[in-house]
């Protein structure tokens, strides 16, 4: 049988230690981005750009994180309408609140081999209160994360509260 592939040597196999996403931020030192379409920061030839970027997060026991929502209307960051989170291992209480002030708490307890996913619509504030086992989770993005604020869709809690105070339902 003929194999239609170019021969590869076992020496072509690469194992890479991932570099943290943001070494200047304590949580950023525990966040790792994987962009399968890039090699050394450059678009890989023949690999479509719409492959997802995958960001892996590790949050320590009893850490509080999140405390933001997404607007869902930024063309540079369409992946947050809804935001999808894939929990791998650990436990947390996820507090959510919409612009009307409706609140809920979702208890996440992820056991080995039994991941849990969550979809959060735009304009829903979400805060993670990590439990005693810590929390491992991932998010995907079709567009690479940008530190340029004009390209971000995030709305921090302070801005959310200001908008919530002035919110007039239609």
Structural Rg = 19 Å
Ends distance? 66 Å
Shape category: globular
**Under the CATH scheme, which architecture would be assigned?**
Sandwich
* Biggest pleated sheet: 8 strands, antiparallel
Low-confidence sequence ranges: none
Count the helices. How many? Answer: 1
Q: Tally of extended strands?
A: 10
Average pLDDT rating: 79
Structural class: mainly beta
Keywords, separated by commas or semicolons:
globular, 10 strands, 170 residues, 1 helix, 5% helix, eight-stranded antiparallel beta sheet, two-stranded antiparallel ribbon, mainly beta, Jelly Rolls
Question: Would you mind describing this structure in some detail?
Answer:
The chain is mainly beta. It has a single domain, classed as Jelly Rolls (Sandwich). The protein contains one helix and ten strands. Strands 1, 4, 5, 6, 7, 8, 9 and 10 form an eight-stranded antiparallel beta sheet that branches. A two-stranded antiparallel sheet has the order 2-3. Strand 2 and strand 3 (42-43) form a beta hairpin. The longest helix is centred in the C-terminal third of the chain and has 9 residues, at 157-165. The chain is globular and about 55 Å long.
């Amino acid at each position: 049988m003929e194999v239609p592939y170019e021969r590869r040597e076992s020496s072509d196999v690469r194992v890479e230690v991932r570099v943290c996403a943001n070494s200047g931020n304590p949580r950023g030192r525990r966040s790792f981005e994987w962009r399968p379409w890039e090699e050394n920061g450059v678009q890989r030839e023949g690999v479509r750009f719409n492959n997802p970027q995958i960001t892996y997060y590790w949050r320590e026991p009893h850490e509080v994180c999140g405390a933001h929502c997404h607007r869902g209307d930024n063309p540079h960051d369409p992946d947050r309408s809804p935001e999808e989170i894939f929990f791998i291992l650990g436990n947390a209480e996820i507090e959510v609140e919409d612009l009307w002030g409706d609140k809920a708490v979702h208890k996440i307890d992820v056991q080995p081999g039994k991941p849990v996913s969550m979809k959060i619509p735009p304009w829903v504030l979400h805060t993670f209160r990590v439990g005693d086992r810590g929390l491992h989770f991932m998010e995907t993005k079709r567009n690479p994360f940008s530190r340029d604020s004009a390209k971000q869709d995030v709305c921090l809690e302070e801005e959310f509260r200001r908008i919530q105070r002035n919110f007039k339902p239609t």
